[in-house]
Design goal:
This protein has 7 helices and 11 strands. The radius of gyration is 26 Å and the shape is globular. The protein is 44% helix and 23% strand. Among the domains are: 85 residues, 2-Layer Sandwich (Double Stranded RNA Binding Domain); 69 residues, Ribosomal Protein S5, domain 2. It is α+β, with helices and mostly antiparallel strands and 266 residues long.
Length: 266
């Protein structure tokens, strides 16, 4: 027996122990990923259960709400085509599976005006008792398949402002006309917009241009949220004016999307 043989045995043992440790680490990672996936599923299930309970306990106050509750109206298109006014957000919840995004319209306090962007915009009113703060929030809802809504909520606290914004966004739901209007693309699928349109709100003016398949959303990060909820995957956008005012920027994009129907119906 040479001196090298025990050394080689020790090396093999160390290698085995190392592989066992790696296997254990990988197994732990897999277990953690599975737990995360289970949590995500449970959160989605909780949201669906809460929505089902809310709709089950819903007592409609309008004629349109009663028709939806009884099942006589089964599509949101029946309401939008007749230009009926929606007064209850539960009507939209019953007919569409909506997702919510909050736009960063405010800015936290920072040195020299360099604060971080946030979803709440805070304003203050001067009075004899002191400063009275007020919060505003901008919400966008959509089913990622052609339906979109926007709403602004204001309140003395943050959470009521968010709830108001989401409620108003559901009441302002409308249908987005999609298509394939780019001369570089002939797929005839609803991945972009059918034609170029312009929209304006205050000092902000935007121009939306159809893009070929695979281009993506060539725009600001906050505007991407709007297009994703609308189900638009490829688009170009040109913006002019004070685009830091995100409320005006988003509102101009919404106005441009609403104009598409006017041009298509002509």
């Amino acid at each position: 027996m040479t001196k090298r043989e025990p050394l080689e045995k020790e090396k093999k043992k160390i290698a085995r122990e190392g592989t066992e440790e790696k296997v254990e680490e990988s197994m732990e990672k897999i277990e953690l990923e599975e737990i995360k996936e289970e949590k995500e599923l449970t959160e989605e299930e909780k949201r669906k259960k809460e929505l089902e309970e809310k709709l089950a306990s819903w007592q409609p106050k309008t004629e349109l709400g009663r028709l939806v509750k009884e099942g006589k109206i089964k599509s949101i298109d029946e309401i939008l085509e007749k230009n009926k006014k929606i007064f209850e957000p539960e009507i939209v919840d019953a007919l569409l599976d909506l997702k919510v995004e909050l736009i960063k319209i405010g800015q936290a306090k920072g040195k020299f005006g360099g604060g971080k962007r946030r979803i709440w915009r805070q304003t203050q009113k001067k009075s004899g008792e002191g400063n009275i703060p007020k919060f505003s929030c901008l919400a966008v809802v959509g089913n990622m398949d052609g339906y979109l809504g926007i709403g602004m909520g204001k309140a003395k606290e943050t959470l009521p402002a968010r709830e108001k914004a989401i409620r108003k966004a559901k009441l302002n739901i409308f249908k987005v006309i999609r298509g394939c209007g780019s001369f570089d693309c002939i797929c005839n699928e609803e991945h972009s917009i059918p034609l170029a349109v312009e929209g304006k709100c205050s000092s902000v003016r935007v121009k939306l241009l159809p893009a070929p398949r695979g281009t993506g959303l060539v725009c600001d990060d906050e505007i991407k949220k709007v297009f994703r909820l609308a189900g638009i995957k490829d688009i170009y956008i040109k913006s002019f004016g004070q685009t830091r005012r995100k409320y005006n920027h988003v509102k101009a994009v919404i106005e441009a999307l609403k104009k598409i129907r006017e041009y298509v119906n002509k």
